[in-house]
Design brief:
single chain, about 80 residues, mainly alpha, about 70% helix, flat
């Protein structure tokens, strides 16, 4: 959990301090599109194909942290 929180902080810090060529509007669009696409894909895989229920049949809320707070900054960086 400490590594997860540390990586969230590091990726967000890098994405927002090293970003010089994207405008604020482009950054917000990347963040929103990434979250919307990731959540739509997860809904299809989870509820249509039952793909994420390997170990438990409940929603793993800690799994949302990487999707919401690590994937968009990585897309902003690259």
């Amino acid at each position: 959990m400490i590594v997860l929180l540390l990586s969230i902080f590091i990726f967000n810090w890098i994405a927002f301090t090293m970003n010089k060529r994207l405008t604020t509007n482009q950054t917000v669009h990347i963040w929103c599109f990434t979250n919307a696409f990731q959540m739509t894909f997860d809904l299809f895989v989870e509820f249509k194909y039952y793909g994420y229920w390997y170990f438990t049949k409940k929603i793993e809320w800690l799994g949302q942290l990487p999707h919401l707070l690590i994937v968009p900054p990585v897309n902003i960086i690259f």
